[in-house]
Amino acid sequence: MSNFSAWDWKPGSRVVADLSARAADYEWREEPIASPDGESVACIVKQPDAGFTVLVNDEFWEQEFEKAWYLRHAPDGRLTCLVMSEDEWTVAVDGQPWESRFGFAWNTMFAPKSNAIGVAVQLDGQYGIAVDDQPWEQMYENANNWLLSDDGSHSAAAVQVKSLGQADIDTFAKGVFSAAIDGEAWEHNFVNVWSLAFNSDASRLAAEVRLSQYEYTIAVDGKPWEQIFQSVWAPCFNPTSGGVVAPVRMGGKWFLCEDGRKLWNTPFTQLWSQKFSPGGERLAAIAATGLGHWTVVVDGQPWEQSFNGVVTDLTFSPNGRSLACMGKDDNAWWVMVDGQRWCGGYERAFAPQFSPDGKHCAVRLERGGRYSLCVDGKVYSEDFDMLWDPTFGPESDRILIRAIKDGKYLRRVASLGDILG
């Protein structure tokens, strides 16, 4: 977990690294990534007549690898990379590889409430998950829809529990997939399993399941709902009631259900990405109220504003009082907060970031190859070659800006007053 209150929040700007300083020491580099606290910038580099390693600020990791990819920071700031040595893959954390080796590894996962690191792996033609250097004891010939619980105590995946011969339609139709937690599969099999979700303490698991060619429902801890639907989307747990909430399709329309019963009676053309506020008091989802009319629905009531393209990145403020998303109209992106549009006409928009007190919202945007910062509807006076998601300080009065400009990586702490004027 990241203790962001301990970061340097003194206002000011400084150059952390000149990205061209070590250019003579490598053949090429991949796209850089900034650490959560802004104190470092890293990238995978190909060394001359040698393998790959990682450059952090002006220093290389000591070890080099045959291949390296998927550079990511854990929430606590540790830097992870998937690396290959002697034709075997593993995870390197701050330059130190795990002891376990795999035929392949991908999709690094992090537990935001702990320091756990998980990764999808293939070992001897079998698939599963490894968490903190410990792979599942039971692996499967097919696994997907990987999931690591928020506290890192459990991992899960949709797994194939029965083998199939070529064109073995009969066995497939009887159900060959299930869900496995820490490698142990549910007893019940399904035609398909997708989109797993843990509850808050990872004691329960829900998933989309397909019962037959045209029958879908939600399964919880291996037991399907009694109700059957034309289709379903990803479930989530209600933090207040403990029930499972999922969008379902009935009679050609989409409804939101909890434990198989309608939670919202209003039908929608499409409905997905439901999310509870941090305290569980409010429930929102992305919906289409008609063809080409995408919006946000809060507690069953759609916003008046809509988009003809798509709505993404539904985000509640920490206090649950505000809600933000990105919306696309005619190939241009907008920010929308509490039903009001901000900062429109951009080629790309990224997930909104709220302040700890929930009173402010910041978003990074891209247009014409330049990146901008929008805070509370006002665009920052300076743009950048590259920009990472902004982070508000613990008192909600400052913003950490991590950016690249003129080949230099900058760490800047700006006061909210300087940005808003």
From TrEMBL:
It comes from Desulfocurvibacter africanus subsp. africanus str. Walvis Bay. Gene3D superfamilies: TolB, C-terminal domain. This is WD40 repeat domain-containing protein.
